[in-house]
Amino acid sequence: MNIPNTLTLARIIAVPLLVWLIIDQEMFAAFMVFVLAGLSDAADGYLAKRYGWNTELGAYLDPIADKALLVTIYVTLGLAGHLPVWLVIAVVSRDILIVGAVLLAWMMSRPINVKPLLISKANTCSQIALAGVVLAELGLGLGLDTLVWVLIWVTGTLTILSAFAYFWAWLRHMARYEPAPAPRPNRRKARGADAPRSGVRAS
């Protein structure tokens, strides 16, 4: 277990802690945990690239940690009344749609490699910004109500557009997918096996 993977696991462990802090109305502490989680995400990415500590485990754990953290924060803030329900439903539904589409493609023997789209990256940045601003407002009282309102609508719009973009990419993949051709038999070996053997027979 290297340092980047340890930091990733720490973010996963921080998920239930964040839920408890938000439910307990410890918003300043929740904001600080969120900031530390973001810093650890940047740190593990830098260390993995800088020192070549990329692992298959890390490739799976890192997006799981990021998504678990964001989705959990949105659901918890939504249940606590700090985010509109429609936005929480949109965020969660988008992720379910993507996962379901990938699984369906595999079940239909048309595997798809999901690559982050530009609008998806913008959506992720917007989701992170909104979560951070809401927690900062609740924990520090900075008077960011207008910014929160703007980010809610920006995030909602990007989330819906991102879902449609992935769905359209999935439809194109399913329509154009062609399975890899089966390997052809080696004709030289086949002819060699059928050719008569030369040589002197012992009598």
Automatic annotation (TrEMBL):
Principal location: membrane
EC main group: transferase
GO MF terms held by the record: CDP-diacylglycerol-glycerol-3-phosphate 3-phosphatidyltransferase activity
Annotated region (Disordered), positions in chain: 182-203
Catalytic activity, as annotated: a CDP-1,2-diacyl-sn-glycerol + sn-glycerol 3-phosphate = a 1,2-diacyl-sn-glycero-3-phospho-(1'-sn-glycero-3'-phosphate) + CMP + H(+)
Transmembrane segments: 59-79, 150-171
Superkingdom of origin: Bacteria
Locations listed in the record: Membrane
BP terms from Gene Ontology: glycerophospholipid biosynthetic process
Pathway per the UniProt entry: Lipid metabolism; Phospholipid metabolism; phosphatidylglycerol biosynthesis; phosphatidylglycerol from CDP-diacylglycerol: step 1/2
GO CC terms in record: membrane
Membrane topology: Multi-pass membrane protein
EC number of the protein: 2.7.8.5
Gene3D superfamilies according to UniProt: 1.20.120.1760
InterPro entries: CDP-alcohol_PTase-I, CDP-OH_P_trans, CDP-OH_PTrfase_TM_dom, Phosphatidylglycerol_P_synth
Keywords: Lipid biosynthesis, Lipid metabolism, Membrane, Phospholipid biosynthesis, Phospholipid metabolism, Transferase, Transmembrane, Transmembrane helix
Family: Belongs to the CDP-alcohol phosphatidyltransferase class-I family.
Alphabetized PANTHER family for the sequence: CDP-DIACYLGLYCEROL--GLYCEROL-3-PHOSPHATE 3-PHOSPHATIDYLTRANSFERASE 1, CHLOROPLASTIC, CDP-DIACYLGLYCEROL--GLYCEROL-3-PHOSPHATE 3-PHOSPHATIDYLTRANSFERASE-RELATED
Protein name listed in UniProt: CDP-diacylglycerol--glycerol-3-phosphate 3-phosphatidyltransferase
Species of provenance: Methyloceanibacter marginalis
Lineage of producing organism: Bacteria, Pseudomonadati, Pseudomonadota, Alphaproteobacteria, Hyphomicrobiales
